Amino acid sequence: MPFSELDLTPAIVKALIQKGYEHPTPIQYAVIPPILSGHDLVGLAATGSGKTAAYALPLLQLIGSFTAEMPHALFGLILVPTRELAQQVSEEFTDLAKALPYRVRIVTAYGGVSINPQLLRLRQTAHIVIATPGRLLDLIEHNALSLSQIRVWVLDEADRLLDLGFTEELKRIQDQLPKVKQSLLFSATFPVSLESIIQSQLINPLRIEIPKESEHQNVITQRAIQVDGPARTQLLRHLIETHLWSRVLVFVATRYSADTIARKLRKARIAAEPFHGDLSQGKRDQVLRDFKASRVKVVIATDVAARGLHIEALPVVVNYDLPRSVLDYTHRIGRTGRAGLSGLAISLVTAPSESHFRMIEKHQGQTMPREEIEGFEPQEQNPINLAALSTQEGGGIKGKRPNKKDKRRALEAAQKP
């Protein structure tokens, strides 16, 4: 079905054609008509499924009639968990709005940079504000904007917002929203904590869930390679050089690991950069620009920094360290295999992390064969089989159950570069 059959105006369809979009993704097909009709909605779909355009398209269309009546009023608020996602959502709105016959003023606000330019932009008309929760509250405290009359608000990557600890900020923002509004919530996963937001803010919402098999997850090939912890960096270098990957996004557990691995790869003449919260916003922006332009081949990122990243045609994601949360695994591998393109997700599984990877497999509903790469065959044994001990009758053998120090040592061994 073409976009023209989704009640979108010719101007919106023209903008899509200019961007090379021909057909809506399943989530776009399912949610655009009810959003245009004014329904509250919960949209659940995998990472990389086109959720941003799914709400951006109808909002841009609705703004047309709104600005004719109230040209200087704030129409919509979009809350996102990270700076990078705020930038990407803003870029999506801006690109789609270029072909419209009316002007849409978009203001993007996030922390880590000076608030003054954002305050100046808000002195003029703002139709759409895209913001992280903390910076939005800062702007409100500066009397830069009011939420009392907005028509639509969107929680994008709602599960990430809660996971990053924005629960209190969200409650403060909700208290300032008008009672009559359209509420849209989009998420890749559905933790129980989302239910309270739905109950308090959405009115008879439609719940639209797109099964993973209906999205692009089937184009992601997942592999699990067994390796000793200390050999992971050399194996990563071997894989990059052997397969001639053009770009690789590598996930690690700590900022120290990101810096260390990037430094070792650069010594091997592989263009690599770390990406984490200790870097300035300017440096993070530069790394992303260089990565998208293929001037940097490998980016080693922590979860907090990488949430919400969208890199066009990213061929490979590597889990150097396994994510602590099984839900994060879905978000990580969703950085590749986007927009119908094929992708590869590789997890480096050490002996101490084997039981945790089995939990990830269980959550994914699949079992991946363990691979070994010649020259990197694992030799280490897991000194503490946490899974086996925890399943013994009676909670394990007295005196043999791992204490906190044992668990910490096992975790450190699994995460050691």
Give structural notes.
This protein has 417 residues and is α/β, with parallel strands linked by helices. The chain folds into two domains: 3-211, Rossmann fold, CATH 3.40.50.300; 217-415, P-loop containing nucleotide triphosphate hydrolases (Rossmann fold). 41% of the residues lie in helices and 15% in strands. Strands 3-4-2-5-6-1-7 form a seven-stranded parallel sheet, with helices on both faces. It has a seven-stranded parallel sheet with strand order 10-11-9-12-13-8-14. β12 (316-319), α14 (326-333) and β13 form a beta-alpha-beta unit. α2 packs parallel to α3 and α3 (51-69) crosses α4. The protein is globular. It starts with 9 loop residues before the first helix and ends with a helix.
CATH superfamily of the largest domain: P-loop containing nucleotide triphosphate hydrolases
CATH topology of the largest domain: Rossmann fold
The major beta sheet can be summarized as: 7 strands, parallel
User: Stretches where pLDDT falls below 50 for ≥5 residues?
Assistant: 384-400
Report helical residue fraction. 40-55%
Overall structural domain count: 2
Q: What is the count of β-strands?
A: 14
Assigned CATH architecture of the largest domain: 3-Layer(aba) Sandwich
- Structure classification: alpha/beta
Shape estimate: globular
Helical stretch tally: 17
Strand order of the largest sheet: 3-4-2-5-6-1-7
Task: List the defining traits of the structure above.
417 residues, 2 domains, 14 strands, 17 helices, 7-stranded parallel β-sheet, Rossmann fold, alpha/beta
